[in-house]
Amino acid sequence: CSTCLHTPGESDWFDKRFERAIEPLHSSEVPMSSDALILRMLSGVQSKSEMQFTNRKQQQQTEVSPCRTCAVVGNSWFLRDSGLGFRINQHDVVLRMNQAPVQGFETDVGNTTTMRIMYPEAVRIQDPGTQLLVLPMNSSGLQRFMNTLFEDSLIFQIAQFPGGNKKSKDKVLVISLTFLKYIQENWLKKQGQYPSLGLVALFYALHTCDQVSLFGFGTDNLQRWSHYWDDKYWFMNNMHNPKAEYNIILRLWCEGKVVIYK
User: Fold this and answer.
1) pLDDT tens digits, residue range 108-140?
2) How far apart are CA 35 and CA 233, in angstroms?
3) Pairing, β 225-226 against β 233-234
4) Domains of the chain: which residue ranges?
């Protein structure tokens, strides 16, 4: 493994924005944080949620290898016929977006999935043993998901899959709202209403991995977004600022903080 990506002094631009100590995951270990205050507002859920998210940081630290390589796999059409599947599989952690399919596309996107990041309303249990990384955009979104997490409906859904059981709840992690605020202010400089799912996945990887590789990010020449598994195109809505996000990703690549594969 090469030198850690976060070595201070190598990039003034990066050092001014990167906060090493910030915790990406929602945790009840910091009682005065905004996340803990939100938890206190959740009627009947607090004790369960605290038990669910306590010591996540310590758990991660014990599971992390001395040099963890991470592949953040986007959904772009650029992955089609790319033949990057083998390279993606070589990473310690493979993080995918929402319900992006793997079966039938293994040659281009690999067949390993460690984590899936998705919005609460899109949560589906697809791969037994895969960590779910949930991204609530506000306190109401967090509340709805937390309520659902401890209802029988999600537990029943988990239990229907081979190897799935009630303990699979432990595979669910939640991105901290404080972490979203950090991305929006430190990196996007408040451009756009909130960061995209892909950008959050990228910064989660930057804060938890030693080497980060990006696959299938970006739009085509007409600024259209697409999927590698279909032929549909659409333009980004006003919630995100794709140009600002692209510039950040490009600068991270120029500073040697990420490797980009299209």
Assistant:
1) 999 999 999 988 776 665 666 788 888 876 555
2) 36
3) antiparallel
4) 68-261
